[in-house]
Amino acid sequence: MEKIVVIDFGSQYSHLIASKLRKLKVFSEIKSPELRPEELKEVKGIIFSGSPLRIVEPTAPGIDKRIFKLKIPILGICYGHQLLGREIGGKVRESKIKEFGKTVLKTQDKSGILEGLKDDELVWMSHNDEVSKLPRGFKISAQTENCQIAVMENPKKKFFGVQFHPEVSHTEGGLKIFDNFLKICRVKRDWEIPGLIEEIIKDIREKVGKRKVFLLASGGVDSTVTLAILIKALGTERVFAFYVDSGLGRKNEAEEIKKLFRKSGFKNIGLIKAENRFLKNLEKISDPEEKREIIGRLFIELWKEKIKNFAPEDWLLAQGTIYPDTIETAGTIRSERIKTHHNRAEAVKELLKRGEIIEPLAFFYKDEVREIGKELGLPDELVRRHPFPGPGMAVRIICSDFSFWQDKKINLPEELPLGELEILCQKFSLKPYLLPIKTVGVQADQRVYNKPVLLSGKTDWQTLQQVSSEITNHFKGLINRVLYLIYPETFDPKTLKLKRAGLSKERIFLVKEADWQVEKLLKEKGLWREIWQIPVILAPLSFSGLGETLILRPVLSENAMTADFAKIPGPVLQEIVEKLLLLPEICEPKKVSPIELILYDITTKPPATIEWE
Ligand code: XMP
Fold first, then answer.
1. pLDDT at position 328
2. What is the reported pTM?
3. For residues 513 and 583, is the Cβ–Cβ distance under 8 A?
4. What's residue 445's pLDDT?
């Protein structure tokens, strides 16, 4: 299949580039800059991504210059544009005026990459440096007020560079620019799901041969679609699926899954009850990466136990891994490890190395997986399910182990200029508090694990959006998540304490119930479909030392690589709060803790991740 390669210089946005190209029906793959030029021989076009690093730094990644001799069209974006300029004879320098955010692009020459664009185009800029001298054979095709060489082209060589980011939705003509590049590359537009299903089936049959396949199903979209396509390829007799009840799934999950699977015509489905085993291994663990490692290992242990009476050479383990799962865990050399996905835990990597794992959907994005599921005839309620992380509620329940919080060096609050934060928030009549818990984020394409800031005061969504991005921009590397106080209206921060709490049955029960209530209400209000997912987080923050804090994290997203926080209308939010406050009554006789605080996560991804841990 003809393809375009996106060379990833460490940008989270590389996935956006690749998925934009796929929307234009072209297969695109992400590769690291360490690749050898020979690997690109069959490729129809190359895109250099942006980067969190600055090209003027000595450690900035480069590229093998032989790539420029391959006679393949190249499009450089931001860092990639500067790299292209510098490597073939131009010059790069620090910009006098740095551009961040929406900028007007004045197009001058619309014969190539800018064909069909307006004279004034809104584009998204984010750069400290710029190309200051054109390489030989290049011309300038567009400028902005502060950037002379915003677009450069060498039509003869088919090399193009754009300083802005065409892959983000704020660049209105972004898709058109990619479309123009694809036309220039003369690449076949054959990346279409219905046709691809046959290819996946062929690959499965080849890889599995005469063996059987065993899948640990979670009931989520990815593993269910994997199961459906395996059955289509191999028939029901050779595919065995087990749903592992780790106790960390959603409320009534096991029952729901059974029903849905029956409806989808699946056979050979079993249940592995492992709630106690998961709990025993996790109850004292606070570190998110440790939780993920343990869960990944337990899944593999269960699999091995299940098939120990069979000859291993007769079996393969199948996983519902999708494309971003392979990259966010440092799938390419440059991208930092942000979170270990349970299907990339060490034990799994061992099996992968030995060729004992099959992942039929590892090349697809979530929207594509949903389309495959639909094509295979899976019911809408299954294909449309909100994503749910493999490690389940374990990564939505923040635990506090005092030795963990105190021993591990926390670079806050000593390094955080609290006065500065207060001044920034005063502008918006809001009061900030630094919370004594930690959460994972992704800033400058690297994992961060820091404390969130809570804001209180009367305001509107728009102000919250603005203040959230001002805080995370201003305190880069220090603050990666901002919350807003929903309940109670005000509080005395001196009385709020971190209580000792692990992964207990009671806390799991509480968060499952909260998650269930929120989802039910959103469905009733017709808001469920437009929201990508709404994790509900439990945090051990309490006034009395007995209660709990719930955090709502509703997000809008296209493929989970980037996300905006969703703004639930006030009256619906009010109803949600009322339901959550009633939980201890609803949950009787289990006697769960009272809800003392309800917060709303108002951070985009990046700098926060969707899940908290
Ligand atoms: P983050 O938190 O990384 O999440 O922004 C991106 C998407 O991935 C889901 N997620 C996971 N899914 N195993 C999974 O199968 C995992 O370990 C995992 N961690 C996060 C998350 O729910 C979101 O949709």
1. 57
2. 0.83
3. yes
4. 63
Domain with 106, as residue range(s), is: 3-185
Domain final residue, candidates 361, 388, 415: 388
Cα–Cα separations (whole angstroms), residue 572 to 306, 335, 519, 566: 45, 39, 12, 13
Annotated catalytic residue: which of 165, 253, 342, 359? 165
Is there a cis peptide before residue 135, judged by omega within 30 degrees of 0?
Answer: no
Residue 395 located in a structural domain? no
Among the candidates 131, 165, 185, a domain finishes at 185
User: Taking 90 as the threshold, does the pLDDT of residue 396 lie above it?
Assistant: yes
**For the CA of 563, the nearest atom of ligand 1:** 5
Is 451 in a helix, a strand, or coil? Answer: coil
What percentage of the chain reaches a pLDDT higher than 70? Answer: 94
The residue with tokens 């699926």 is 241
Ligand 1 first shell, C-beta below 6 A: 292, 328, 339, 341-342, 387, 389-391, 533, 560, 605, 609-611
Round to whole Å and give the CA distance between 2 and 29: 11
Residue 53 is part of a domain; what is its CATH number? 3.40.50.880
Distance in angstroms between the alpha carbons of the first and the last residue of the chain? 38
* Residue in this structure with the two tokens 């450690």, named with its chain if needed: 59
pLDDT of residue 403: 53
Is 233 contained in some domain?
yes
Q: 409 and 306 in one domain?
A: no
Span 99-123, mean pLDDT?
93
